[in-house]
Structures are given as C-alpha cells and as structure tokens.
Amino acid sequence: TFTNASLILGYSHKNLTGERSTIDFKVALSESFRFKVGNKLYFGDKYNHHFDAYYDFSMFKLPIYKSNHKTHVYDYRRNDLAVQVGHIFSKKSEMLVKIGYESLSISPDVSEISDKNDTIKIQREILDGKIKNTYFNLKYHYNTLNRKQLPQKGISFETNLNVAIKPKYNFENTSDSIMNTIKDRNTIFRLKSELSMYQQINERSSVIEHISLVASYGKQTEVQKTALGGCNKFLPNHVSFYGLTTAQMLVESVVAVKVGLQHRIVDELYGILHLNAATTFNRIDDYIEKKYFKEDSYFYGVGATLAYNFSYLPFELTLMYSPDYKFNVSVNVGFLF
After folding, report:
1. Listed residue (277, 272, 273) closest to 314, CA to CA
2. Helices (H), the chain
3. pLDDT, tens digit (0-9, with 9 covering 90-100), for 180-196
4. Is the whole model's pTM more than 0.85, yes or no?
5. How far, CA to CA in Å, does 35 sit from each of 8, 11, 158, 169?
6. In this structure, how many other beta carbons lie within 10 angstroms of the beta carbon of residue 316?
7. Quick check: 107 pLDDT over 80?
8. Which of 100, 174, 255, 265 is the most exposed place for a label (fewest CB within 10 A)?
9. CB neighbours (10 Å) of residue 269?
10. In what order do the strands lie in the sheet with 238-239?
C-alpha cells in the first residue's frame, strides 16, 4: 500500500490525570508520518463512562486513480483535535459521542497522466489548498469476537454517523466544477455501518461474512469522499475491498459484501480466501433531486491471504484480483494505530 514501512513507538502513563486515567503517546516514523497523543479518564460509580481528549496528526502521499491508472498524487496532511464521551453498556458494547475540529491540507506532488490530451483538464481538477471544519460524531459498536487478530468466531458491528459542519475551503487555481461543489459550504452527513460475522464450522475453519454500507448527503471534494480498496483501513473514511489497492476508489456512497473461508493450516498459520462485490451510488440528495445510479457502478474482486498470528507482530501476505483493476499485492506487518 501507500502507507510504507513505519517504526511505531508508544508510551502510556496511568493515573496521572485522575484515578483510572491513561495518557497515551504514539508516533509512526516513516515517510508516512503520524503522531497521536491522548488522555482517557474513566468515571462513574462503576467506571462505565469515560472522557477522552486527543490530538492526531498524519501526513502521507495519497494517490488518485482514474480506473486503474494513477493520475496524480497529493501531499496529504490532516490535523484532528477532538473530545468524546463514552458509555460502556457491557464488555461487548459501547456508545461514543465526539466533537472535534479537523484541518486538511492538500497539495499536488507529482503528475503521472498517461493521456496527453487530458493533461490540462486533469491538472485543473487537482485540489491545492485547505479544508477546515468542526464535526460531530456518534458511534455505537458491539463486539463478541473471540480475539482481535484472525478471530475464529463471533460478531462485530459498528455504526457511525459523522456530520462535517459547513467546511471552509481555501483552494487555489481550481476549476469551475470544483468551485461549484464547494461554493455553498453545505454540511456533509455520512452514515457508515459495518457487520462482520465469523461462524466456526470445525476446530480449524471458519466462514466469514461481512457487509459495509456508506451513505452520504452533501456535496464533497474527492478527498472528502469515502476511500474504497485494500486490506486495511488507513483513512478516517475507509472501506476495505479485495481486488483494489488501498484507497484506489473515492466514492460518495457504497455497499460492499464479502464472504470468505479461513483455515488454520498449522499452529498460528492461516490461509484465507476472499470474494467480495460492491456497488457505488450517488449521494442521498442526488436521489431527492431525481438523479440515478452512475454507470459502471458494480464490480467484484477476489483475494487469497497467508497470515501468521505472532502475538505482537502479525504478518499478512495477500494476492488480489479484480477484472477491471487487475492484480494487486498487499503485505502487512504489525499494527496500524
């Protein structure tokens, strides 16, 4: 993927800001740099509430594709400052309410345009500037998976409503089509829900079923859309899809379905087969205005993963194929944060 190898350093300190509090510091050192510092404080008679505050900074190169051709690359920098309150219903379920401030800085890095006739058009469509907004987020998740890495049984469900309140855009040298998108400074609503089910059929094998739904309302630039593709979720709005490289498609709304078969070969070595399909569709407000499905919105992909579950350093090698986007290879070692 475009995330590159990172050296991840972390430090935690407990009970500094109160009883049952934790201060966390994490940094990923690489070309794709990330830094995060946060404080979590549990409170209540049963300590089933918590208050969190954090600052998260990330920077990396975000490639933009047209079909399976990379047209340009952004230098992408994101600042996220937020506070949230969580209520723990049980060991399995929790609800979180978050308010934050987000700043995106986007600038073109390179241009790799294969069609010379489209050079001027594509360059004018490239974003160069900043997007700033306050946002509100409501999230609920339920988890009965028997373990975090390569689970064999259980259910994971998460639904997330995010509201970006009237983003402020400051772009240079942009085309009329982009200016028409951002001139109204409309609030962007995004509902994202994901359900994963692992059904164990014997001691070694499990069937995996997964569905993702993203529905949005409000005009968006390409870097505000949901990223689709890859094995791991790297961006704030990201849906994995076997057959596409990481964030190969940027979509407004999508439904993706995946089925898989996971088999423990020996010890903690696993083989996994994946089959997934997806359809992308317009924003909800497009349908209110009687606009319909875009062309070529249905596609599918397959993948095969060889994974070893080291306790502190999981390893995954995945080969993927999609008829429209050809072969991709993904290697993942360790954890993202």
Report:
1. 272
2. 119-125, 176-182, 284-288
3. 666 667 899 999 999 99
4. yes
5. 10, 12, 25, 25
6. 19
7. yes
8. 265
9. 13
10. 238-239, 226-228, 249-251
